[in-house]
Amino acid sequence: MTAAAPSLLEGRHTRACPACGNTDDTHERYSEHIDPRRIDGMSYASRKDPEYMRLRMVVCPACDLLYAPRIPTAEFLRHAYADTGYDSDTEARYAAASYAEALRGRLSRLPNRSSALEIGSGNGALLSHLRAFEFDEVIGIEPSREAARSAPPEVRDLIRVETFDSTRWSAGHFSLIIANQLLEHTDDPFGLLVAAHGLLMPGGALMIVSHNYRHWLMRLLGARSPIIDIEHLQVFSARSLGLALHRAGFIAPEIQNFSNRYPVHYWTRLLPIPGFIKRPLHSRLRRGATGALMVRASVGNMFAWAQA
Question: Distance between CA atoms of 76 and 28, rounded to whole angstroms?
């Protein structure tokens, strides 16, 4: 990844708001802060330790999206995610349990359980739950080779190690599409929403868990928030996500705060404190009984359910 760092800094292109197309990028929220010497094989990994590096981020005055008006090339991003490291196998399983809990009560609202697609499936932790929910077909898309290799044998064959390409399926193929913690990373989030809508059968649903930069804790932390990160090309608010889903054709999307259950030791990884304090604290908690205690908290994520 270090060798590719110049591509991140020099090969970027300018874009309008990726949710609504507005071209006013004067409402700066965060200035750029990048140290190319610190970009490594974990910079584009999920659930990594915060690096506190970021692209320039502005707020769209039309739809309220927080986004980077200059981003890396699609080729850089493809290689970055394909080659990234992966060290969050356990945390992914905890996250999947929270996602499955939110999904379970909504399964009856689907037209059927013929086919489910998870875009950004990581180690396949949620795919196991989808099989337990008795979907006839379960497919995961994951660009990271390391993440896919971490999948347990029973779901490894369900994961396609590639970037999402909607042309691989016919219109209306899926009854459920899941895109959790994904919209921040794609260079065309609105295009992904439109593609998902086209792949859903009538009454099918799109499930999203996404960061919310308007959450009170995220506003309090500001640039020290873990969601203000070099790998995040945009971060939605409830308003901007709702507008984007409506514009993509979804009917009356539901958006609400979302809480995760993680062990105490994981939450310490996100603390905005110096590394020389955080690293030994996290290590000690991870080894001890206290660190294994499960804590549910809403720390800036939101859940969206939108039907076609």
Answer: 25
What's the predicted TM-score (pTM) here?
Answer: 0.90
d(CA 54, CA 66): 12
Token pair belonging to 254: 């539901």
7 secondary structure, DSSP code? H
Q: Categorize the per-residue pLDDT at 278 as very low, low, confident or very high, splitting at 50, 70 and 90.
A: low
Note whether residue 36 is domain-resident: no
Beta pairing partners, 117: 139, 177
- Residue 3 in this model has a pLDDT that exceeds 60: no
Distance CA 70, CA 16 (A): 9
Domain of residue 202, residue span: 87-307
Phi/psi at 303 (nearest 5 deg)?
A: -115, 130
Two tokens, residue 19: 């949710």
Q: What is the CATH classification number for the domain harbouring 117? A: 3.40.50.150
Residue 287 belongs to a domain: yes
> Which residues contact residue 190 at a Cβ distance below 8 angstroms, ignoring those fewer than 6 apart?
18, 19, 20, 244, 247, 248
Class of residue 37 by CB neighbours under 10 A (exposed 0-12, middle 13-18, buried 19+): exposed
Residue 267 DSSP code: H
pLDDT of residue 9: 67
Q: Give me the chain's average pLDDT, please.
A: 89
> In this structure, are strands 251-263 and 234-235 parallel, antiparallel, or unpaired?
unpaired
